[in-house]
Amino acid sequence: MAFTLTVNGERRTADVDGDTPLLWVLRDTLGLVGAKFGCGAALCGACTVHLDGAPIRACVTPISEIGAKKVTTIEGIGKTPVGAKVQEAWKTIDVPQCGYCQAGQIMSATALLAAKPKPTDADIDEAMNGNLCRCATYIRIKTAIKVAAGQEKA
Amino acid sequence: MDGEIPRDPTRRFVLQSGAAVGGGLLLSFTMTAEGQAAGDSKINAYVRIAPDGKVTIASKIPEVGQGIKTSLPMLIAEEMDVDWSAVTVEQAIADSKIYGRQVAGGSMATTLEYDGLRRVGASVRALLIQAAATRWSVPAASLATEPGFVVHAASKRRASYGELAADAAKLTPPDPKSLTLKDPKAFRIIGQSHKSQNLDAITTGAPLFGIDMRLPGMLYATFAKAPTYGAKVASVDLAPAKAVKGVKDAFVVEGGDNLLSIMPGVAVVADSWWAARKGREALDIKWADHPTAAQSSRGFEAKAAELAKASPHRTLQNDGDVDTALKGAAKTVSAAYSYPFIAHAPMEPQNCTARVENGKVEIWAPTQNPEAGRALVAKALNVDPSAITIHLIRCGGGFGRRLMNDYMVEAAVIASKVAAPVKLVWTREEDIQHDFYRPAGWHNFTAGLDAQGAVVAWKDHFVTFGEGETFSLAAGMNSTQFPGRAVANYRHDVSVMPLGFPTGYLRAPGNNAFGFVIQGFTDELAHAAGKDPVAFRREMLGAPRLLGEPGKGDSFDTGRMRGVLDLAAEMSGWGRKVPKGTGLGVACHYSHLGYVAVVIQATVKDGAIKVDKAWAAVDCGRQIVNPSGAAQQVQGSVLDAIGAALYQGMTFENGAAVNSNFGDFPLLRMADAPPVEVRFKLSDNNPTGLGEPAYPPTPAALVNALFAATGKRIRSLPIGDQLA
């Protein structure tokens, strides 16, 4: 059936089964491949997108549950001031190694800073612990979050 | 755009059919990336220069997160004498005729390319100078370069590289050996930190990775293989899969018995990956019996214990007289160490896109080893290797998994049976259950100490996998591993048992386990000798000297190891007092031409382990090419090893993997990742690679720290709840 979604501020339509995870609607139907497939089970966070500003795992969220909520992906997060700051900090600190998980990391970090502009180390660990990085760029991720928050200089 | 995958990827690379003239460098190859100005001049296979002076440099080695796409082009740019800000990097296509070895493996790219790629850059500079010399009718020797310009000081003339490029492209390149390279003191790019490539695409979600490929008319595929490695399809009802909305086709693929290529299975092809996956779930496949089903983790453990008690199958190294030395020793120490199979689990599941049309095969592959894949695809499809084009796509992690190209063959075979391009994507479960595992192993050590606590005898009965004199892939061991050749009475015995599973190369293959067992046991000897673990290692290393032949990969420089050991001790404040329940552990290991010492501080409270901090001292030669990337590789290796040592182990039953996802095959998470301080000890040796050598000492440094903290010696990985 056809679902109408708001993705990054645009109205989009997807004619898919209701059990199709949002991740695959974004990637295969709408051509937004920034959110990544990592586990399909909400264990790695590579597919993190925002639903009305809150981070969710798109790989386990059926399209039928989205309704009127607004979807924001890595492709659109730079339009928010916090998202733009986080993206910039990621580049300044040169966070990525392979880069595959970083879209999900940036989405989680942006949600954290939108809710807590000056997070503690414990806040960061808690907010980011669902996002795996196999290259283990955690040290630079933490630094980049602090730089984006203005708590540390680049 | 910064993304590696343009909207129409077929436009990106155009191979011209020019014949190779003399050296392979001359085979004509043009990269027509989107946005490329029409007036670019191709100076050689690596460098194009636009009229405005913008330079495009090809990176020959696949990028898997090791940062090679930054560091290798830096070598060319340095010797070209161009500002890094004027450089755009593009990934080269897979073609060994042009580029030679294109393998992201063995930490070998820096080692093998450091001189040659500098000469590529120097050759471009020489051609630009020659073009200016001809234009101005002055001797080439009277010209110099400033970044992006050729200058003639006497007449104060200058011409930009952009102005000279078209002329330079017509000239015959000089003999690379005749070129004079820059004095390292004059380096402006090498040795400075430069950022990762594709940062814009990574941070904005632009198409970049293999899994992001989209071709017009492309279909999506899943491929179901037997849980027991190599089992054939006995029967399957394809109708339920074909009934799933969006599924276009489902079919049995016969496959073969080469674990490196395509195994028997069932393909489902659909108009979306989710539909293909649903189709796969709907299949009820009966798998044929297979002898590997008799193998299991429990069986391996029992067999390893039996072999450990029996006479070794073979003795691979036997220096001096170990048995006599042990009899005369003041103290003997025996310990049995073991480690499990582990999977690579890169964040990007295995995937590949292929199009087979009119006898031509085009492949977009996240691979670390494209030429090996080309050979397998050629065989599987019965086509000439020259009919196969392989585009190298940035890999979402490699760690050695993508040295194997099974998924590439699967994509090509499935695409050959479908009248459309096909993107094959594995599930995470398939990725973990069909890996080429780091082989498990068992080491049975005995060593003897003299009255002064010096090691006078060392033997290791290594129990591993193989048949007769052949080891399973990546299951053998270099018999001259330190302390071989340093201990006078040294024996390396080996016994093997057969294995039906796919095994392969995981980051620092072999060494990722040997570092643990050797440096763990060494720590036990230090304590048995009543000596400080750092001081004991210094004594074992002895005077600075080379063990083995100069220039050989297995030669070992005790002085270089002493250098990093001392540095790690200094960095960590070795010997300082730590609170009860906290301990410092040290380990040092040589692999992939790099010498690394690691100190870890860990705290154990109520059985829960907290890794507080790690310090890594690294000697990889006289020059760090890209300090930012270098530090990342060392930190990543150390943290990778900590995660593996803490949590990771595969379990097998009935010839099949039990673990399935990150729930039962955990990776290190942020809250458990300690800070890692990295320092490089420069030595007068050729620069070598950094993707691997910091991994091997780390698990031992961790278990040694846990011993210091608790008095409990961990001899078997993963550490898991052994302290609980």
Characterization of the model:
The complex is a heterodimer of chains A (154) and B (724). Chain A folds into 2 domains: 2-72, Beta-grasp domain (Ubiquitin-like (UB roll)); 78-148, DNA polymerase, domain 1. Helices cover 35% and strands 15% of the residues of chain A. Chain A has helices spanning 22-29, 81-93, 102-115, 121-128, 138-148, and strands at residues 2-7, 10-15, 48-51, 54-57, 70-72. A 5-stranded mixed sheet of chain A has the order 2-1-5-3-4, with helices on both faces. The mean pLDDT of chain A is 97. With 724 residues, chain B is α+β, with helices and mostly antiparallel strands. Chain B has 3 domains: 9-204, 2-Layer Sandwich (Aldehyde Oxidoreductase, domain 4); 214-290 and 350-425, Aldehyde oxidase/xanthine dehydrogenase, molybdopterin binding domain (Aldehyde Oxidoreductase, domain 4, 2-Layer Sandwich), CATH 3.30.365; 311-341 and 437-710, Aldehyde oxidase/xanthine dehydrogenase, molybdopterin binding domain (Aldehyde Oxidoreductase, domain 4). In chain B, helix 3 crosses helix 4, helix 10 (370-381) packs parallel to helix 11 and helix 13 (511-528) runs parallel beside helix 17. Residues 6-36 of chain B have low confidence and may be disordered. The interface between A and B is large, with 56 and 61 residues.
Question: What's the quick description here?
Answer:
The complex is a heterodimer of chains A (154) and B (724). Chain A has 5 helices and 5 strands.
Task: Tell me the major beta sheet of chain A.
Answer: 5 strands, mixed
Taken together, the total number of domains of chain A comes to: 2
Secondary structure class of chain A reads alpha+beta
Assigned CATH superfamily of the largest domain in chain A = Beta-grasp domain
Instruction: State the distance separating the first and last CA atoms of chain A.
Output: 48 Å
Approximate helicity band of chain B? 25-40%
And the CATH topology of the largest domain in chain A? Answer: Ubiquitin-like (UB roll)
SSE-based structural type of chain B: alpha+beta
Q: State mean pLDDT of chain A (0 to 100 scale).
A: 97
Largest beta sheet of chain B: what is the strand line-up? 12-13-10-20-17-18-19
Total of DSSP H or I helical runs spanning 4+ residues of chain B = 17
N→C terminal distance of chain B: 52 Å
